[in-house]
Amino acid sequence: MSTPHIERGLAATPGQPTQGPLTHEELQLAGRNHSMPLEALHDDLTPAGLHYLLIHFDIPHVSLETWRLRLGGAVADSLELSLDDLKARPAVTMPVTLECAGNGRSLLQPRPLSQPWVLGAVGTAEWTGTPLAPLLEEAGLASDAVELVFTGADSGIQGGVEEPYARSLTIEEAMHPEVMLVYAMNGQPLPLQHGFPLRLLVPGWYGMASVKWLTSIEAVTTRFMGYQQAVAYHYLQGPDGPGLPVTHIRVRSLMVPPGIPDFFTRRRVVDAGPVMLHGRAWSGHGDVERVEVGIDGTWMPAHLDPPVGDFAWRSWSMVWVANKGDHVLRCRAMDSSGALQPTEQVWNYQGIGNNMAQRVEVTVR
Amino acid sequence: MSTPHIERGLAATPGQPTQGPLTHEELQLAGRNHSMPLEALHDDLTPAGLHYLLIHFDIPHVSLETWRLRLGGAVADSLELSLDDLKARPAVTMPVTLECAGNGRSLLQPRPLSQPWVLGAVGTAEWTGTPLAPLLEEAGLASDAVELVFTGADSGIQGGVEEPYARSLTIEEAMHPEVMLVYAMNGQPLPLQHGFPLRLLVPGWYGMASVKWLTSIEAVTTRFMGYQQAVAYHYLQGPDGPGLPVTHIRVRSLMVPPGIPDFFTRRRVVDAGPVMLHGRAWSGHGDVERVEVGIDGTWMPAHLDPPVGDFAWRSWSMVWVANKGDHVLRCRAMDSSGALQPTEQVWNYQGIGNNMAQRVEVTVR
To answer: Region entry Disordered: which residue ranges (chains A, B) (predicted)?
Structure first.
């Protein structure tokens, strides 16, 4: 079937949120979907093997010989493009921070049942591709086209609905100059797991919009009601929709946990004295304007470096003079839209956009 | 401190094995330590971003300018080598299957508390480096040297012991011609997370022996008693040692789960008719000689392709004519040492080497 059975009232998550222990299903997802170890915040760019990955179904094997991108539907001229055709078009390389909309989900109480991210579902890579808007202009969108549907080669079942992974953008959203079709990541061909040979890249949006293994773009004259668009990825307070669709990345900062870890608990041990705390901050709603570090509940401003790019994180740092004992470190960012990370959870039914300020417990010796 | 307090009776795992639910600590580890999605068994070589990763502490940042490999201790001539020095030596490129000793741990009952691998802690890469034995000959091992200690740049606390990650090999083990110091993976410089700039590679052994971020090799005249050598990585039936040290990889086969998955449960749905089942099999104790596929309890031989290399997995396949209904698929391999994967768990205290035959539940429609 190609449209989800929303009328069945299926929740986007497979069950009620729970106060209960982690399930085997969540463990399987945690094993499959890689997070970025937070020490990788050290670098401007995240290597492909450390960048977060959220893959709904299986990684598909796409043969370059037969693969074509089809651009059709409500357009004057359908296009069918090989990867070479796309590479022959004007190329742009741009650092972009991508984050999974579910980042921080496992920290919510009660816990929505889905991929149980802790905090590492983020990464910044330098993506190379060709802007989408000129392609759409070339195809000639029909005057009654309202959305573009982007479909990947990956397919499976979610919430009882069998579909390929597909998401839509309105014409206006799709025409933004930063929206690209990308075929390289950090100067290398797109890795298999990041969507080889081609993925959509929607800078500033949570990662669900950047459809991997892209096979078709279809202009449609009515709103797309696929599962990943109409059911999943909504801010909801309970199982019943519609709720607000998830779009741009909420402001967030993260810290490289200082000192050394305990293998099992990951608790940090730090030597007394000056400690350089540092991390990254980003937002899809505006520029990051301020980062504050909380030491045992007292907030202090951090130094900010320039952003790595218009749609990429910026580095922050602050020297902390660590005294012996147990301490709680936090960080929070504010963006130019005035949004500030909350220090308490702001719960929602699908566990989306939980940008509550990070909390790092350390023992200073 | 540089030697672990074994006399304190610390268990290698942080607590008693449990029948209980997954802990937040295990979830944190599952998020940090990447497993290989099983569909990556499709390819001879695993891309760096899909290869499994087990990192005990934090990924260290090593500067190539100051980094040197120090080979010293009980040798006639200590050596200090830059990466260029190592690259100038004879180079070997070899596909090697690496697997974490804890692969399959989370499937044990009761469950040892550590990294809760399901089944994907494996990968095969083409590694490039220089054999270790000629370097040892050049340095001239003292006649009373018994072991070589390999120490990484990563450091932390495990079981109450603070140490850099370090493992030893006997002289005889270290002199095997396939033991290498590697600086490239799949034709690229060693990725940060795989040990940049240099890691030890001990083909045929579980991954704990292949020390990442290698900084020193020290010939010693008494057995090394570091935590990762003397406490962790032992086959034990309870908290008290010594038990048998973990060395070579036990025979295992894995299957690419057929059909399409459900996002949350990962349960497979398959269309009725002929289905090509396929996967990989490997062993560190000899050649894989047989793979059998179990369909609802009936075992049948699979076709075997030649191994990818002397220390790498081989492909297997079998056509299954799938009839409607629910089915349980399994696979098991036997190696030239006569070892056969068990169909029931063989439990041990640290959850090591659990090579129980994989079980895949499918619904055929």
So the answer is: 1-22
Please state which of the four CATH numbers 1.10.10.10, 3.40.50.2000, 3.90.320.10, 2.60.40.650 is assigned to the domain occupying B252-364. 2.60.40.650
A contacts of B269 (beta carbons < 8 Å): 157, 162
The residue among B56, B263, B276 with the most chain A CBs within 10 A of its CB, best to mutate, is B263
Contacts of residue B55 in chain A, CB cutoff 8 Å?
Answer: 37
pLDDT 10s digit of each residue in chain B, 365 long?
Answer: 333 333 333 333 456 798 888 899 999 999 999 999 999 999 999 999 999 999 999 999 999 999 999 999 999 999 999 999 999 999 999 999 999 999 999 999 999 999 999 999 999 999 999 999 999 999 999 999 999 999 999 999 998 999 999 999 999 999 999 999 999 999 999 999 999 999 999 999 999 999 999 999 999 999 999 999 999 999 999 998 789 999 999 999 999 999 999 999 999 999 999 999 999 999 999 999 999 999 999 999 999 999 999 999 999 999 999 999 999 999 999 999 999 999 999 999 999 999 999 999 999 99
Per-domain boundaries in chain A: 6-245, 252-364
Interface of A with B in 177-216 (CB under 8 A): 191-194
Task: Give me the residue label for tokens 């929607």.
Answer: A202
The closest alpha carbon to B94, from B130, B137, B135, B133, belongs to B130
Tell me the longest C-alpha to C-alpha distance in chain B: 70
B30, B57, B262 member nearest A263 (Cβ): B57
Select the residue from B32, B41, B163 to test the A interface by mutation, using most A Cβ atoms within 10 A: B32
CATH 3.40.50.20 applies to domain B6-245: no
Does B137 touch chain A if contact means CB atoms closer than 8 Å? no
- Among A50, A77, A59, A79, smallest CA distance to A197 is for A59
d(CA A190, CA A60): 13
Across the A:B interface, residue pairs with CB atoms under 8 Å apart total: 171
Residue contact A29–B264, C-beta within 8 A: yes
